[in-house]
Amino acid sequence: MGEQRRRVFATTDIGREALDRLRERGWEVDVYDHLTPPPRKLILEKVRSGIDALITTLRDGIDDEIFAAGAAARLKVVAQDAVGFDNIDRDAANRHRIPFTNTPEVLTDATAEYAFFMLGAVARKLYPAEVQVREEKWSTWHPYLPWLGDEVSGRTLAVIGMGRIGKSVINKAVGFDMDVLCHDPTYEEHSFIEAIRWLMEVRHRERLCPRPQTIEYVSLADALRRADFVSLHVPLTLPGTAEEPTLHLMNEERLRMMKRSAYLVNTSRGPVVDEEALARALHRDEIAGAALDVFETEPLPSDSPLRDEKLCGKLRLFPHAASAARATRLSPDPNVGMAGRCVQGVIDVLEGRYGGDRRQMPFVVNKEAF
Ligand code: GLV
User: Fold this and answer.
1) What does DSSP assign to residue 321?
2) CB of residue 107 inside a 6 A radius of ligand 1
3) Cα(307)–Cα(287) distance, rounded to whole angstroms?
4) Residue minimizing CA distance to atom 5 of ligand 1
5) Model confidence over 280-333: pLDDT tens digits?
6) 163 pocket-lining for ligand 1 (C-beta < 6 Å)
7) N or C end: fewer C-beta atoms under 10 angstroms in the chain?
8) Is 50 exceeded by the pLDDT of residue 88?
9) What's the average model confidence in pLDDT over 78-104?
10) Domain membership flag for residue 278
């Protein structure tokens, strides 16, 4: 009897060209081709029906029941089309010995540049500026009315979370003559700091920056107290799953530590910021502004305190789009696009690449299970 045809279920269309790499292999690819994610019940049904691979996004909660159903059926891999995977129960995946993959690296620069653009947009008031033109409220040129923005160049940036994206933000900030404060709740990478320091010295020596720039590791409290901009790049971790969980890392107390003139930027995960506390801090002018791409509940509910019109001038809101750039999202090349890297995770597992050793497969996250 020949081998059964491989079956893949994708909870959304991650990109035709990438999915064609699976179809070319003669595999059956079933795509839930709707704007919104499939109901959980449908995911369970598909898993029970004997799919070999499940392609997911951060909108799908993949929990113990789904992994248990997968282990009882034929599920061999869950491939997440994102770098973050807080929607996937890692312990459950390990208990059922099902590998799951993610798409690191290929979205690093797209996400970092978006964070930087958000920072610029909120500080230089790009949105109210455009509204002024569009709504025909641009009556004259005036030196400071109706408002002024705050400069970015030469200011101090705090990067909280020194993974790939945090480091890429720093690399970009160097070109804006910024000083950098680094903080990571779990590790410190001093060789990176040395490399950036060298770059800063060269820029100063060659008169590309008018004064010597600085970069250093500091405590979270120091970073918050000293920065003009605070950019968050930590994964979301819940109490009980990490030594220093990042849930509500930016709570009322920490927001208060920031300068009144400082801005907060979040492209990590929504629950890292206590939104109620942030709305209060903005209303009370305890910080100058914020730019958010991620929210505690997505899409942002209509009754969110962040939607208050009074905050509109100082709060920029984006639809979890930091990695939403063409090649980054759709390229079928695993070295370029999330879609390509996602299907490569499926191919590695289903074709038993790397001698079938899941610990050697570059995009498998839960290597500890094998
Ligand atoms: C997006 O948020 C991702 O984790 O890739």
Assistant:
1) -
2) yes
3) 17
4) 82
5) 999 999 999 999 999 999 999 999 999 999 999 999 999 999 999 999 999 999
6) no
7) N
8) yes
9) 97
10) yes
One-letter amino acid for residue 240 of the chain: G
- Whether 266 and 358 map to the same domain: the answer is no
pLDDT at 103 over 90: yes
Residue 186: domain span: 108-317
Q: Nearest C-alpha to atom 4 of ligand 1 is from which residue?
A: 84
Does residue 119 sit in the same domain as residue 217? yes
Start-to-end C-alpha separation, the chain:
30
Please state, as a whole number, how many other Cβ atoms lie within 10 Å of the Cβ of residue 330.
Answer: 18
Q: Which of 12, 83, 88, 114 to mutate to test the pocket of ligand 1 (most atoms within 8 A of CB)?
A: 83
CATH code for the domain of 201: 3.40.50.720
Taking CA atoms only, the protein residue closest to ligand 1 atom 1 is 82
List strand residue ranges (DSSP E) for 209-305, in order: 215-217, 229-232, 263-266, 289-292
Q: What is the pLDDT averaged over residues 181-210?
A: 96
Q: Is the CB of 255 under 6 A from ligand 1?
A: no
Q: Which residues are catalytic?
A: 269, 298, 320
Question: Against a cut of 0.85, is the pTM above it?
Answer: yes
